[in-house]
Amino acid sequence: MAKNDVLADVKLALSDTPEGSTVTEVYFEGPEIVVYSKSPILLMDNGEIIRQLAKDIRKRIVIRPDPSVLADLEEAKLKIKGVVPEEAEMTNITFDPNTGDVIIEAKKPGLVIGKHGKTLRNITREIGWRPRVVRTPPIPSTIIQGIRTILQNESEERKEILHKVGKKIHRTDIAENEWIRSSFLGGFREVGRSSFMLHTPNTKAMIECGVNVAVENSNLAFPRIDLPEARILDELDAVIVSHAHLDHCGFVPYLFKFGYEGPVYCTSPTRDLMVLLQMDYIDVAQKENKHVPYGKKEIKEVIKHSVTLDYGVVTDIAPDMRLTLHNAGHILGSSIVHVHVGDGFHNVVFTGDFKFEKSRLFQAAHYRFPRVETLVMEGTYGNPEDIMSPRQEAEKELIRTISDTVKRGGKVLIPVFAVGRSQEIMIVLGEYIRLDILEEIPIFLDGMIWDATAIHTTYPEFLSNELRDQIFHQGNNPFLSEVFERVSNQNERNSVIDGDPCVVLATSGMLTGGPSVEYFLKWCEDPKNSIIFVGYQAEGSLGRRVQKGWKEISTLDEDHKIKVIEANIDVHTIDGFSGHSDRNQLINFVKAISPKPERILIGHGENNKCVKLASWLYKHFRIETFAPQNYETLRFK
Ligand code: ZN
Ligand code: ZN
Fold first, then answer.
1. 153-157: long-range contacts at Cβ-Cβ below 8 A with a sequence spacing of 24 or more?
2. At CA 263, angle to CA 628 and CA 452, rounded to 5?
3. How far apart are CA 134 and CA 121, in angstroms?
4. pLDDT under 50 in the chain at which residues?
5. Cα 265–268–270 angle (5° rounding)?
6. Which ligand is nearest to the CA of 378?
7. 374 vs 625: CA distance, rounded Å
8. pTM here?
9. Closest-approaching ligand to the CA atom of 333
């Protein structure tokens, strides 16, 4: 049986300290070590003792109150209300007896925390409970509410899950790290169903587990977890998700249907957006009578098994693996994944989807790492002609197109993905209206955009410095601007369709279904109207056909008979808003990344783009490059 010496070490180290006698239990919880103590001093500021100990053993240590010191719930609530200033605007206080946590939801979390955490310490001193502060979503979000309720209600089971995970992470009977290799299960030389495994003699970790929504054949739509090296779901140590797009996370719930019981590592916004998109995925599949690989039950398992990490925090995920997530600049919470194997044995950086340029929403992707030998990079825009226009030009073109359309009495449709481009376009439109460059016209949001935006407003700390500053210090949250109006039912949609000139942002982004198609069909015959494509249009989608200039669109009339309508709508494509790096940014990233990797693998791109980019990088940087194929296995060391 595996020994868990680290717990004994922690107990021993603590027993030598003045607070040692107050420690009642030491416990694993996921990657963290939890110390239960009766001492409020130990609880209040984690003390120098704990800080030093955490540093010595290189583990994350959390102090929890022993149940005997917890105040009665009603009394505790009253005391919290006494300590926290009213301006913090608390909206909910809930207790978790399993962890001794009190979760305080407030509109201004900073005021609950107090200067250097003073108010939090006062709360602990008064009631014994350990306060955790979460932001009240400024736009109510049923998804976030649902996730918080599940974590709360299932906290006892979750504690057990995390304890099991912790024991596995900290097992000590491990083999020497002689090798590391990777198997590619999907998303290589293609876009969609991203997934690959990292194997060492001790550990099996899966990075990404996506779906390709554009493909029906399940051998091509899902990662091949039926390959021999992947058929080990019960042995799998970890699943890591870089961001919430379905081509990276859409198949994660399925793993829980087939025996996976381990953790899912990601950032908090990724967890919330991932749940939103997975729910929508099964919803859409059901409505279209397509194969639905899992249900709500499995999505709930994902929530229960999620371990959320902040950018830059080093976390043990296996006896020989440490994980750190960094900003990828692609969508909210998107991460570049850094995996450190063994004690300096090998380091892998996986970019996921990334933007190596600052956008309105995010800082440019992170590019400095302590060490990196193998870089796995996306190649979506890897061809020489994949150069996007500069952002400022893209913004100007967008504003000009909208102004011209409105002037001639037309309406503007912008088909968008719910997460990412929609919020970027919202910020741009809001800003130009604020500066009086664009006249104030109604901007309608239809589809899942509103829910996704609500999740953005909950995590301002993941946004660009300027945006964060604007929200926190200038009290101006651009997402809450009155120019945005939600369309939430068919009646409202009909009145927008028949109404005055306006801008509509609607899903889906490629006119493959959803409200954007409805607006398009109603507006496409009138040449006064405009459609603006700001995102990728896949081959085979209606969006791609319209973009290419097809004039005849077949649709069904009220009697479900095929009728052909003429697309006279003014068609524009503006490519500068992409959340991906264009060819130049991909190359600039390879130039900038520090330290220099020994080898580069290109994935997440069409076949020829991956191959061409890999060979160009080899010729110009003299770094070993690969464009692996799906189902291939490659040894890194
Ligand atoms: Zn993505
Ligand atoms: Zn992707």
1. 154/304, 155/96, 155/98, 155/99, 156/98, 157/304
2. 80
3. 16
4. 1-3
5. 75
6. 2
7. 10
8. 0.92
9. 1
